[in-house]
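Design review, sub-item: ligand-bound model
Attendees: FS, YL, KQ
YL presented the inputs for the pyridoxal-5'-phosphate complex:
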Amino acid sequence: MVLTTTESASGESLYSTFASRYVRTALPRFRIPDTCIPKEAAYQIINDELMLDGNPRLNLASFVTTWMEPECDRLIMAAINKNYVDMDEYPVTTELQNRCVNMIANLFNAPIGDGETAVGVGTVGSSEAIMLAGLAFKRKWQNKRKEEGKPYDKPNIVTGANVQVCWEKFARYFEVELKEVKLQEGYYVMDPEKAVEMVDENTICVAAILGSTLTGEFEDVKLLNDLLLEKNKQTGWDTPIHVDAASGGFIAPFIYPELVWDFRLPLVKSINVSGHKYGLVYAGIGWVVWKNKEDLPEELIFHINYLGADQPTFTLNFSKGSSQIIAQYYQFIRLGFEGYKNIMENCAENARILKEGIESTGRFDVVSKDIGVPLVAFKLKDSNQHTVFEISENLRRFGWIVQLTACLQMHSTLLF
Ligand SMILES: Cc1ncc(COP(=O)(O)O)c(C=O)c1O
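KQ shared the predicted structure:
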């Protein structure tokens, strides 16, 4: 994002040592150059400058995939010039996206009848997926309130204070009040009891996280579902649940199959997952699936026909690349359930070893749990007294928890 800054004179031009055999003049930094330069020079200048970026494979603090097999890289490059939205031009890509949506919905135990297909869509990431899921809840709630002749101008959403920033964005961009359950000392996820207490007639949904961004912990969706069912029975409301499974959606089904967190629970109506996290695809792909057709209000779906036949779309963006969808499909058929399970088991094992090593130094407290996203989140022992409680409310804004995650994921994938 570019915000206004005052540039010093020295920052206005770019120079390149190696490209000087092709070009002798400096490039302006913030204006399109007046003249063209040879392609070799353009390549060299950019390549040199990018050397100052970090090396993705050494990035220890990201959930996002940094390595894929060369065969998949080839598929990605072959599709780099396909616009996904042009579904009539690229019907096979559309078909692969639909297969992925159905595979994910089945993985999350969506109740798909014989001859039916799942309801869902590929997105740029979990953030877009969450905006779409949130909009569906908001619209459903508004429609119901209108039918009942009740006010529908004060929707709210209940989450833990540990939610990722995309939930705050959703609330602000789409004018929904965000009611956050405060965290407590030593308990850094949403407490289901407190969440249900905060639900009122204006609550469009409660959002639970399967894999908190900071500590990787899974929230107790089953308990939330049971408590909310009870409250709905008492009040006559039908407040639903969304599960933000950005990370956990591609972990729990493979290594914690006994954990009930998905569409098996009656109140869970939609789930998002990031393909580019434990779905094992490079950045740029997420998914949202709805339990039933009725959970996605028809009026949010646009039907476009100017590129050919009628195509229903429910996304925030229009054009986007096809490569990530193809890469996701590659991973699904290449790894299968067995492959994902092996990789997630490797990740969990690596996390366990790393955790033991960190603990053995005697200087850190590990705050991540054994069941959850396979990462190690830890803090300095002596930062405890004055910080943990004070910052619990604003946990996500502080860098006191250090996470090691991507290295685990990448090495676990390489081992497979
Ligand atoms: C729990 C959770 N939800 C949502 C997001 C946003 O995901 P994305 O980067 O795919 O938009 C993240 C990213 O870290 C996350 O951890």
